[in-house]
Request: fold
Amino acid sequence: MTTQLPSKDLLLEACSGLVIQPHPILQAAYELASLHEARRTADPATLSEIDSARARLAHEIDQWVIREPPRPHAAATLHTETVGMVVDRIARFSVDAHCTLDTAASEAHLHYAW
Reply:
């Protein structure tokens, strides 16, 4: 069975807290972004718990990709990260970028974050 991966726009919306289309990767992206947000202010004693939850979600994404393999893009190349790892990284960067907007960051810092 061939299933579509969510678009980059839907993925970024999910990382921002808006899941419009029901899709397991979008739900996981939302949860990953929430965990990255919590990680920013978490007590150091809870960081391993948060990171374990992130690893579990990344693994769930990877398991979904194995069960529902998307049609490969003609120009796709072998990647060193799993889809779950990439979604986790995108969630982190999305949270970092939005948090930068909420602070009095310099123009250079805003440019780097976005």
Summary: The helical segments are 8-15, 24-41, 47-67, 83-101, 107-113. The chain has one domain: 8-113. Residues 8-113 form one domain. The mean pLDDT is 89.
